[in-house]
Amino acid sequence: MIQLFLPLNFLGFVYREIRRALTDLENMLGLLTTKPRITDKENAQPLAIQQGNIEFNNVNFSYHSSRAILKQLSFTINAGSKVAVVGASGAGKSTLARVLYRFYDIDSGSICIDGQDVRDITLHSLRQAIAIVPQDTVLFNTSIRENIAYGRPGASDEEIDKAIKMAHLTKFINSLEKGDQTLVGERGLKVSGGEKQRIAIARAILKKSPILIFDEATSALDSHAEQAILNAMREVAANHTSLVIAHRLSTITDADKILVMQAGQLVEQGNHQQLLALQGEYARMWQLQQMQSNNC
Ligand code: ATP
User: Fold this and answer.
1) Which tens digit of pLDDT belongs to each residue from 257-294?
2) What is the phi-psi region of residue 65: left when phi exceeds 0, alpha when psi lies from -120 to 50, beta otherwise?
3) How many CA atoms lie within 13 A of 167 on its CB side?
4) Which of helix, strand or coil describes residue 261?
5) Residue 94 C-alpha to ligand 1 middle, in angstroms?
6) What stretches pass through the bilayer (predicted)?
7) Does the pTM of the predicted model rise above 0.90?
8) From CA 30, how far away is CA 68, in angstroms rounded?
9) What is the pLDDT of residue 296?
10) Residue nearest to atom 25 of ligand 1 (CA)
């Protein structure tokens, strides 16, 4: 028995050593492919925002070197306009917003705001200039009012009231016994997805950034909730350069420009009518969504 035990024990030892070496190698390769942390350049200047004109020039980006996610992306978002991005799941819509906010740096090309490359300006000034309404907003365990006020610490009561009104939250708040003092978050009132997004819109209004990114919730909202969000968004869009990542085409038919993405590439752009007339990818998506909404 002992004659068998020793060689088997030795083989076990060799196996464990090989496994460990492979894991170390994997970790090392992982480190090599990890993108550098986003920081300010040594001589970064604060963004001198004029109107909020955004330009993507031949932008290429990949999370990992093995797979390109954004490919030769070029487009302009004119200051004060509303631009929507549409495309199948995984087309790169959210990634486009992430590189604009500089969660990641692009591999080649440039992204400019009012003619200034986002890599040349301070991160703080870039992120002050952009307000994001995410798909799923995190609510803190405090009152609705404080959750909104978080958009800009130091905002006056009047400014918070105005943001509540513009985000079409007044009716909802008035229906609650404790009004805007109602506690929300995990331990408070459960608010619907639509209400949550309107709280996020109010936060974004309060932030007073010239650029707004709105990431439409993928989860289905009833038509009342959707309409409330649309109304809130229209109010906000009137004062912002806005980029809307849309999943339901019915919500962006009024956009000044719609960018149609497919596998990281921009395949069509134009307004709703122009894209329908093209009878291409957008028209196909529109027909499909019309059929789906008629089916139930
Ligand atoms: P959806 O409509 O489902 O939100 P999308 O068009 O916004 O999709 P992205 O989220 O931009 O798509 O993702 C584009 C591609 O990048 C997808 O294939 C996704 O799997 C990949 N991806 C997204 N985030 C990461 C990440 N952090 N690391 C690696 N790959 C990622």
Assistant:
1) 999 999 999 999 999 999 999 999 999 999 998 887 76
2) alpha
3) 26
4) strand
5) 7
6) 1-15
7) no
8) 17
9) 54
10) 63
258 lines ligand 1 (CB under 6 A): no
For the question of an ipTM over 0.90, the answer is yes
Alpha carbons 119 and 14: distance in angstroms, whole number: 48
Could you tell me which residues are beta bridge partners of residue 245?
85, 215
Strand partners, 75: 56
Rounded Cα gap, residues 70 and 20, in angstroms: 36
Distance 39 CA to ligand 1 centre (A): 23
Ligand 1: residue whose CA is nearest its atom 2? 89
Is residue 69 in contact with ligand 1, taking CB distance under 6 Å? yes
Ligand 1 nearest-atom number relative to CA 135: 4
90 CA → ligand 1 middle, Å: 5
Q: For residue 6, give the amino acid letter.
A: L
- Ligand 1 in reach of 66 Cβ (< 6 A): no
Query: pLDDT tens digits for 93-115?
Result: 999 999 999 999 999 999 999 99
> Which mutation among 38, 63, 98, 244 tests ligand 1's pocket best, with the greatest number of atoms within 8 A of CB?
63
Strand stretches in 114-188, DSSP E: 116-117, 130-133
pLDDT tens sequence across 214-245: 998 766 567 777 777 888 888 777 778 999 99
Indicate if the pLDDT at residue 190 is higher than 80. Answer: yes
CB of 210 shorter than 6 A to ligand 1: no
Ligand 1: distance of its center to the CA of 95 in Å?
6
